[in-house]
Amino acid sequence: MRTPQTILIACAMAVLALASTSSAQITEYQEQQNLGVEAHVGRLTGHAKDAEINYRRYCAGCHGNQGDGEGENAMWLDPKPRNFTLAQFKCRSTPTGSLPTDADLYDTVGRGVQSSNMPSWNPLSDQQRVDLVAYVKHFSDRWKTDKPGEAIPIPPEPAVNAERIKSGQVLFQKLECWKCHGVEGRANGPSADTLTDDQNRPIKPFNFHDQTKFKCGTADSDLYRIFMTGLDGTPMPSFADNVKPDEAWDLVFYLRTLQPQHSKEKEIAEQLGLKPINPNAAVAPAEAPAPAPAPAQNNENKPQ
Amino acid sequence: MPSRNPNLVITIFCVLLIAAAAIISQRRVKAAPPSGGSITGSIKLEGTPPHQRPIDMSKEPACAAVHKASPVTAETVVAGADGGLKNVVIYISDGLTGSAATEVSPENPTWDQKGCQYIPHVMALNPNEQFKVINSDPTSHNIHPTPAPGGPNHEWNKSQPAGSPPITTSWQAPEVAIHVKCNIHPWMSGYMVVVKGPYGVSGDKGSFKIENVPPGSYTLTAWQESLGTQTQKITVAAGKPATANFTFKGK
Questions:
Q1: Which of A91, A197, A292, B93 is deepest in the core (most CB within 10 A)?
Q2: Which of B139, B157, B169 to mutate to test the interface with A (most CBs of A within 10 A)?
Q3: How far is A14 from chain B (nearest CA, A)?
């Protein structure tokens, strides 16, 4: 009885030992393979293997050595550091659901992410940053099977005028931006309190009223890009299917009027005496074919 | 001798005739298009169905008005009076081979957003089967399917304002199941179940039918969004309906 048992145990141990060494070899091999990942931004080529020291020094504290967003500081942070193994990113120039371009990641590393603990890494050299982009990519095999989406087209920014701001306000109402961002952009829309991110953690909509910088940049084109691509992993959807490229600029101009800083858009809105939208009028046009404003309805307190 | 001979001839003739008929009939079966079998059955819920949370749509007056007469509840377990369990997806989880495993259903179903609910609440699909997302409501929805992060299918999130054109898309890999939500209306919840091969979804009375199942032995899986999965072995013969019933336990 004892002998066959001992033999069996010895056998099992030998197999286990063999299996564990071979699997260790495989992961090491894969790791080395993945470190061959490159990133291309303009004339720069980034190499993952050259970024290892900088990643461990500057990034791993939050994003973790394994890139899983579980660095030692992660538990203190909100929003949480990105988990690179999932290859899902908020700031992209590409359609919702697709990978960002290398340049998108490079811009994020350089700019930092507003309203989060991700600082700007501009103190690093261009080469160091593009190497880090390659290193970020080496954490997920999705980069091997998928290509980044095609960047959404952004036509040249037209001159702002009163007509464009008014048409932007119509879009703000029609697209129901106010459901989350509020009628004045104060992040207090009817759905604002129930929003959650992809990890089911509560998340707040952007407050236009008291913030000047957006999560993915400060320029008009950044604002354009944010609502056309959506911020994947958050409740912010892409509006690219339903907003024409030129119309999108109108919405950009209107959103600027909600912000605290001085701007030409705000000046025009003040001259126009532009009032915030009336969300009750948004329900009314459902029956009427023409979305004409109905100011007389303000007094009526419609129950549902 | 001479009297026996005709009998023998007749017997041999008869045997040959029967054999020929048998061969011909067999040939006919082979020559005909492979008429697949089918699997039918019903899904029952045993015990008390879990409480379904009532849904308050007062934040979306247009939708609240639709449901004024019959208030809506969550749909995590939908069982009829006789215990028939709705919205269960039944599919072949093991045993499919060849083209049956890779064939894409031409059904191309529609996923509607109506009265701030998903219709259907559960939709089964093959990988690469196109489906249409439409918005029948006078209000905006954001259609936000959330496949498992890091998996072969990828999360996307699109706004679909009232009156906007359908979104046509597909999932590239099997996944049981992809949760779909609308962030504007947090009560909206539904599932897309992406499976290989033929599938069925149980209806109001808990009954289902899976058609075009090639003859063979399979593992059949029934998936319910909150009660989990159950499996059983089944053998399907050509042109014959096989039966499989599942029972889920309530709380």
A1: A91
A2: B157
A3: 33
